[in-house]
Amino acid sequence: MRLGSSVERRALPCHGRRNRACRILRTPQKTPDGFSADYEERVNRALDYVVGNLNGDLSLEAVARAACFSPFHFHRVFKARIGETLAHFVKRQRLERALQLLSLTPRRSLTDVAMECGF
């Protein structure tokens, strides 16, 4: 039997190990632009991962893994949701962080700043 709109769905109380199973059973709420709330949460998880690991591995595969997407699907969702590719977002975040470090500590060497920001 296929569950359609005629069946009322409600959020299930989830506790412990069954939390993941309960999430799967819930109908995801859509945002105004058509993305599910789960996708929003996963893209935000990817953004937090990038900002927290600017000097680490920020390859498409690593960030997609942090967001629990396949690399191909993550690239499409990220571009549609954020408006720029992951590579451009990472570069912009690294540049903004470097600018912040240089402005707050003007005597710091450019090499130190570049290494801390992942360049």
Structure description:
The protein has 119 residues and is mostly helical. The protein has six helices and no strands. The N terminus is likely disordered.
Biggest sheet architecture = none
Tally the beta strands.
0
- The span between the termini is 54 Å
Order of helices and strands: HHHHHH
Mean pLDDT metric: 78
What's the SSE blueprint?
Blueprint: H1 19-25, H2 37-52, H3 60-66, H4 71-82, H5 86-104, H6 110-116
Spell out the key features of this protein:
mainly alpha, disordered N terminus, 57% helix, elongated, 6 helices
Question: What would you say about this model in short?
Answer:
This protein is mostly helical.
